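User: Can you model how zinc ion sits in this protein?
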Amino acid sequence: MLVTPPPPPFVIPIVSVGLRFLDSCQEYRNLPRQEQNNVWWVANEGRCQRDPGENSVASALRQLRLTMETRFGEYAVDECISTMPMYDPEAKTDHCGQAWEVQDRAFRTHKAQFRCVFGRVKEALRKAMAQHQENVVIAVYCKSGRHRSVATTEITSNVLQSIGYRVNEPAHLADYWWRWLPCQRRGSRCMQCTPAVDDLKAALYRKACKEYRAA
Ligand SMILES: [Zn+2]
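Assistant: Here's the modeled complex, given as structure tokens:
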């Protein structure tokens, strides 16, 4: 009989981050202008400016790792995953990526993208296991760190948890800027923008688990 081995005892800190807000980071501000432009260009998905150079994506990733490593001290960032290929729901929702409606739309619209994300996570976990690491740090980024990266982080975190990994509660590094979302501006705390898992989210995470296993 085939017995599935238990997952290794990793602790997995998983974070979402918005490239656009890297400029609140001292290391970023110390960079040469050209490097800053590269990050800015990637954060705006190449729409707003001439391409500052073919290395802009690599440069943005380098910067993201640096910022993350400053934030997480002794941890190295094992995997930086882009959710920029997903469409940006900013204009279509009042809520952040913690809301079911944002997660559900992202997942339904971007199944292939999620498989790709899950594949990268699995690969990072395999590598970490081979190197006997105790932590695996996964960073998920988008432009603002409010929708795509947050939704992907929440879904991934719940999937890994349900498989049996020890996952830290996701850290959303750009959450300071959520206060200007339409749902938060009304004053009281939004009931949909929470990490709490209700029936709708539970059903979504079960579907996501299937995709994870298939990835
Ligand atoms: Zn909300």
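A couple of observations from the model: Strands lie at 11-12, 14-18, 79-82, 138-142, 166-167, 171-172. The helical segments are 26-29, 33-43, 56-72, 100-109, 111-130, 148-163, 182-185, 199-214.
User: Helpful, thanks.
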